[in-house]
Amino acid sequence: MIDNRMDDGARVFVAGHRGLVGSAIVRALERAGFCEILTVSRDRLDLTDAAAVDRWFAAERPTHVFLAAAKVGGIHANNSYPVDFLEVNLRIQNNVIHSAWRHGVRKLVFLGSCCIYPRDCPQPIKEDYLLTGPLEPTNEWYAVAKIAGIKLCQAYRRQYGFDAISLMPTNLYGPNDNFDLLSSHVLPALIRKFHEAKSAGRDEVVVWGSGTPRREFLYVDDMASAAVFLMQHYSDERIINVGFGCDISIGELAAKIAGVIGFEGRIRYDTSKPDGVLRRCSDVTRLQAMGWRPAVSLDEGIALTYDWYREYETGLRPRGAA
Ligand code: GFB
Predict the structure, then answer these.
(1) Cβ(207) – ligand 1 distance below 6 Å
(2) How far apart are CA 249 and CA 240, in angstroms?
């Protein structure tokens, strides 16, 4: 019998609790207040070490797992570190999914990524398009690892009846994002670029690529609320998209962020940098039919993320401070 509840006795492990998504899931669980939250820092548990992960599960006995730990990054990092994006992610997910099953976890939520879908698939992207065509080359290592994670969840469900579900988030952003210009995703990178240009009185910001690719962005606290909702209300081997449901061009995004930050200079497009996939917008019909909707608009989310960036990343307050 499948048990989706996270009730008083639940011990919920959030793997990757210091990252963008994991930290938001911890916030969502704390707000809900109905379970014990388990986290473990990287120096106490290396998730790529199978024996250590197994010992940790044996000792801590979680009942539910959110697998949000992963090597992640933007287009440049994905392109530059293929071994890390493929091998590290395979090891983390293999270890956590296997140990979760072996130690009687009742339910596991695996976080995939919208980049698992074929590069040229129709838009908006339905869950059924998985494995119907070639991947986008700039992130195929990461995509292959995530597809293997989906398949592992499906395999454990089929062979052992393990209630593991896979969610496919769109591009996420928010507090605790990575603002490093070489490894980050576009939205935090542009917040930092426009902020620094404005602070230094520079009149030009360089945006990678042509500005024409389109992406969909979801505020990470909405992602976390969907993950907690699906932990409780979804139990199926079919993957499910988690997105905002509409997209915007990188050029429009840059103009929006410049407006929030108050940068009035020029935007120059560096077309020597890759565009990546030309359009990526998820079809969220299945999730919305279950009654879930995002709460934070892109404008609100950018403003909230910029507030967080100014407070924690520009030295006003140390990261991790309340
Ligand atoms: O967010 P991003 O790095 O990754 O880039 P993807 C999105 C688009 O923004 C690309 C452009 O067209 C970039 O060229 N862009 C413009 C910039 N300026 C910048 C900048 O300063 N920094 C960055 N990073 N991009 C990721 C995948 O793809 O999507 C991951 O690499 C993951 O694997 C994630 O799946 C969801 O949206 O192209």
Answers:
(1) yes
(2) 24
